[in-house]
Amino acid sequence: FDIEKDRYDKESIELLRRQGIDLTRNKKKGIYSRDFGMMFLISGLGFSELTWVTFHSAYDFGFLLKILTQNPLPPDLKSFMRHMTSYFGCRIFDIKYNFKIFNLHGGLEKVAKALNVARVAGLSHQAGSDSLLILHCFMRIKNMKAFKQCNQNLPALALYGLV
Q1: Residue 90 contacts by C-beta under 8 Å, 6 or more apart in sequence?
Q2: pLDDT tens, residue by residue, 62-98
Q3: Which fold does the domain 10-150 belong to in CATH?
Q4: pTM of the full structure
């Protein structure tokens, strides 16, 4: 991401800065997106049978697809979802979408609090810390009595905001 070239939401950038993200330093010392994409694919993360657990991730996956393909996003939702399954498989759980099943609403912090799941490391809006909190929320939902009673599988590949 290049703050001097790429479009962005001013409030989102301010939030990242308040959380300690230094975009200027990242531009100077970060990795080029093409190199990241190549390493992502070489590592085995792409084209695999992994299970992806996310929160409100449509934009994140869109950004990642642009990096991996080095092309603009597909022109329509059907093509986008075809790319998603090609690169990431069919096991993508966007828990913000899945929260609706349990009548949970709001941002990650609010829902984690409702589920009695504590952040165990880092700050909010930091990738590693948020990822761990997302996983813990997902595991809490999977272990809920209501989930087990209705024997309902969480829908995979249903990204919040796209379906």
Answers
A1: 156, 157
A2: 999 999 999 999 999 999 999 999 999 988 989 898 8
A3: Nucleotidyltransferase; domain 5 (3.30.420)
A4: 0.82
